[in-house]
Amino acid sequence: MIYSLLRPVLFSLDPEQAHEFTLFSLAKANKLGLASKPRITCQPVSKMGLTFPNPVGLAPGMDKNGDCIDGLAALGFGFLELGTVTPRPQAGNPKPRLFRLPEVNGVINRMGFNNNGVDNLIRNIQKSKFFADGGIIGINIGKNFDTPIERAVDDYLICLRRAFPYASYITINISSPNTKNLRQLQEGHELQNLLTSIQQERERLTIEHARHVPVALKIAPDLETEQIEHIAQLVLNLGIDALIATNTTISRDEIQGHPLAREAGGLSGGPVFEKSTAVLQQFAHKLQGKTTLIGVGGIDTAERAIAKLKAGADLVQIYSGMVFKGPDLITDSIKACSQFLVSKSY
Fold first, then answer.
1. Are 160 and 216 in contact, with CB atoms under 8 Å apart?
2. How many domains in the chain?
3. Host domain of residue 6
4. Which of 168, 175, 176, 276 is catalytic?
5. pLDDT tier for residue 4 given thresholds of 50, 70 and 90
6. Taking a C-beta distance cutoff of 8 angstroms, is the pair 22, 319 a contact?
7. How many whole angstroms separate alpha carbon 331 and alpha carbon 40?
8. Distance between CA 63 and CA 58 in Å, rounded?
9. Which terminus in the chain has less CB density within 10 A, N or C?
């Protein structure tokens, strides 16, 4: 009810301003003691050596810099994925770079990994109560826009080393369409080199810090069957802990004729649901339960959250759907997914 009153105000603002205002308001409400976690029955999920209090998490992009960790945690999420962060701070792409498509519950963004750098994120994580209380935090890492693609692995390794002591898991983001040539890293030999380097460094860091940190790979929905087969085999061969399906799409098939269809960037929200769920299902078939699957893309109802689980996901993540449905989407999804998982176990 509160969000239904606030939504017209938020939608009267530029989308990026509304995003910043929302984070500021959540952080302020939490500091004033006005935010309290909803009391709902949750079904824990044990995956990647972690126990998630419930299967519904926050997708990256909402809080890139960790400015509102405790405020977001108070909404009831089972886990938070922060970022994408890069080794060095960067401003991202020129504005405007964020667009709402309320007719289809969609969002187009070409943000370009705007963030304050991995060290700033780590400082904010260290200050958060959620971290101190053992909350599950994923850190999503990428490369700086001006790092040549042939040196991309260097940026990922820098972020891996910085994040390792503080992350519950680390996500390798190679699927954003808004950093030039980034999706090239999803291709054969380049992906193998990147993941091999990540795994080798992870083994060294595990010994150094005496802790295991799972590694997840986030992929695009715009993959051909041959690419899916190759990625699935690499994930299995190299022991990647989780696969996150999917990022935003560059396709405009679902919004043909929309006034914003020609805007460059990744399309998320409702229009990507079918495509992302189909890719998720293909990976579920290829991986056969040997790798944790996190379903994300187009969840704007509790029914769609369950659909991701039915397609093979172990966990789900939400972001764009909250723009249109507000925090009720979180609690509704937690209830529905928890009930589904309980019924599935019998």
1. no
2. 1
3. 2-345
4. 176
5. confident
6. no
7. 8
8. 9
9. C
